[in-house]
Amino acid sequence: MDFFLSLVIAGACVGSVYALVAVGLNLTFWTTKTLNFGQGAVMMLCAISTALLTAQGLSNGVAIITGVAIVALVGVIVERIAVRPALKTAGSMGWVIATLGFGILLQGITSKFFGSQAIPFPEVLFTVQDVIDIGGQNISLQYVSIFVVSILIIVVLEALTRYTVLGTAIRGTAQDMELAIVQGLPVNLIVSGSFVLSSIMAGIAGILTAQISGTVDPAFGFELVLMGFVAAVLGGMGSSAGALIGGIIVGIIGKLVGGYISTAAEHGIAFALLIMMLALRPEGFFGRAEVTKA
Amino acid sequence: MTSSKSYSSLTLIAAALLLASPVASAQPTIKLGMTTALTGPFNEFGEGNRRGVVLAIDEWNKKGGINGRKIELAEAMDDQLVPDKAVQNMRRILDNKDIVAIIAPAGSGPSLATMDMLEADGRPTCNPLAQSPSVIYPKGKDQPPRKNVVSMAITNESEANRLGQILGKQYKNIGVIHESTAYGVTGAELVKKSIAATNPAAKVQIESYNQRSQDMTSQVARLQRSQVDAILVVGLGADFAVIRKNMSRANVKVPLFGSTGAVTAPYLEGAGDLAIGTRSVSPDAFGKRPLSAYAQNFVDQYRAAHGTDRWYGSDAANPQISMAAIVGNAYDCAVVLLDAIRRAGSTEPAAVIAALNQTKGLAGIAVPSITLTAQIHEAFKPEDLGLFEINKSAAGALYLKPVVE
């Protein structure tokens, strides 16, 4: 039981970070039907900025806020230079390559200026030795805090999009951009805002993941964005609840496969799930099948 | 008349200088080439290797080079430990026919990717770091080695035998976590064999991970469930730090061992104080006190060139043990190649290889006494490894301290 629980807890924790990444991907999918495949580099940039700033003596809080502010700005830039021009061309190849390329560029710039070595990441939410005893089972407070923070952010974001004017505007733009323009909504600003929010989600996911690994390097984040993508597809593209459930499912199943079957299969199982879902239910658990009127 | 004589004398002197200097400067340099991980997440190995080679070349040049010819590292290319990049770089190095000897990449993956090219080319090559046995003995240890490739690297076999003996003698149920590369897979298999040879009753459970995994709960939980009484990690430093942190979260408190590649700066930086108590085998050149005169000279030269940096460590009096396996090995490679060129009196591959095969008792850093024959192209011996444990100094620095077995 201890074994099972430890795998489920670690899986739920890691899965909640995947969910955060998936929600970030969903945000840009709502407004522009695009995904920022450079999100991995955004996670890396936020985590490395935070690590470097704390190493310079800044408090954890100030370093995190600065790191998140940096990637929020990156969100504006990626929308302006990688996505907006690519959307003028037909098909999805343009923005896929442009966002991927932007991510690689960010990695390269970071390597050039800060080196390629792994940098120790500070313990911002408890230490690895902090544990809580639940039913005789030692549970890491770092895992618990990562799970709680991720869920909290997703819930707040969902409430914002459902119950605020801003959220209504975002949903309006998502449903019909042309009508939103006719109605006088600042669509460009909303689209930019969705990329900013998406980058902030990625940045926070980066900081939370760096808590688990303890180090960050320029290649950090690439695998996470793939896992976030799997979570988003599994839950249903565009659905926050789906992203949350999808992320946690991917996390827990990965750990259970790693624990009970083979650690070598831990990462592969996520992609097996992705293939199965695309074959059996392409719209995911919570997504709706797209209907195109003739 | 006087001035005419003076002019004549000056003309003669100038002519003599002109005649003499072109002879000296026309002597082509002896060119070495290397591709290694100068940047990227594993550049502690590649950049360390480059520094070792440059240090050896500078020393030989200060002594006048070889037969009046200066030595030059003509190509030092960056492959980031990526096999594809290493192959491209090696192609360019081999296309330069002026390069007479080559230092192989800093890892088993890129080395294995380039070895067939190097063997086909035939120029003398030295492997500083790749531990996979196939690098030198592609058809097995009972078959002849690649003719033109020698190795100063810790061999997987030496490391595994040493670790297997230590673990097998002390523990009954041992967990091994290894990275899913040639280095990790071969290392884990060899350790398992060595443990079985030392203590046939000992149980060994093996788990694997992909490099740069951000969470290793499954691996640690599986070993915890099996109630292992010691864990060995065969991998690299940053991943080892993740494993150590996972062990702490899971409250796994068994003795922890790491391979030489695992107990490096990224492990100490990533795991911090959690690294204290971790044990590892490593070349013991810098673990002995006093240092041998040869090692002391190397240490002094390195410190003069680079100071107390990431490779040397912060304590000027006590260089990091790992420097022998990361910088010292490449230094040994350059020295063994240059020594063979000197003895051969030629840069012709066949002559240099013949001289390499007659290397006997040459002083080195990672390998204190280098001996090679036509059959034995791996200079490293199990007795060159010492057992070390990570300690914390009064100044708060983490360092490897020799363990008396």
Question: Which characteristics define this entry?
Answer:
heterodimer; A: 294 residues; mainly alpha; ABC transporter involved in vitamin B12 uptake, BtuC; two-stranded antiparallel sheet; 4% strand; globular; B: 405 residues; alpha/beta; Rossmann fold; seven-stranded mixed β-sheet; five-stranded parallel β-sheet; 12 helices
Characterize the structure shown.
The complex is a heterodimer of chains A (294) and B (405). In chain A, strands 1-4 form a two-stranded antiparallel sheet. In chain A, strands 2-3 form a two-stranded antiparallel sheet. With 294 residues, chain A is mostly helical. The longest helix of chain A has 31 residues, at 2-32. Chain A has a single domain, classed as ABC transporter involved in vitamin B12 uptake, BtuC. In chain A, α2 packs across α8 and α5 (141-163) packs antiparallel against α8 (187-213). Chain A has helices at 2-32, 39-55, 60-87, 93-114, 141-163, 165-175, 177-182, 187-213, 222-235, 240-261, 268-280, and strands at residues 119-120, 131-134, 137-140, 215-216. With 405 residues, chain B is of the alpha/beta class. Chain B folds into 2 domains: 28-154 and 320-383, Response regulator (Rossmann fold, 3-Layer(aba) Sandwich), CATH 3.40.50.2300; 157-287 and 385-402, 3-Layer(aba) Sandwich (Rossmann fold), CATH 3.40.50. Chain B contains 12 helices and 14 strands. Chain B has helices at residues 2-26, 43-62, 83-95, 108-121, 156-170, 182-198, 217-225, 237-249, 265-271, 293-306, 323-344, 349-356, and strands spanning 30-36, 71-78, 99-103, 125-127, 149-151, 173-179, 203-209, 230-234, 256-258, 279-283, 362-363, 369-370, 385-392, 398-402. In chain B, strands 7-6-8-9-10-13-14 form a 7-stranded mixed β-sheet, sandwiched between helices. In chain B, α3 packs parallel to α4 and α8 packs parallel to α9 (265-271). The N and C termini of chain B lie far apart (86 Å). Chain A binds chain B through residues 3, 6-7, 10-11, 14, 111, 115-120, 128-129, 131, 138, 140, 142-143, 209, 212-215, 217-220, 223-224, 254-255, 258-259, 263-264, 266-267, and chain B through 39-41, 43-44, 80, 180, 207-210, 212-215, 217-219, 221-222, 224-225, 237-238, 241-242, 245, 248-251, 266, 269-272, 274.
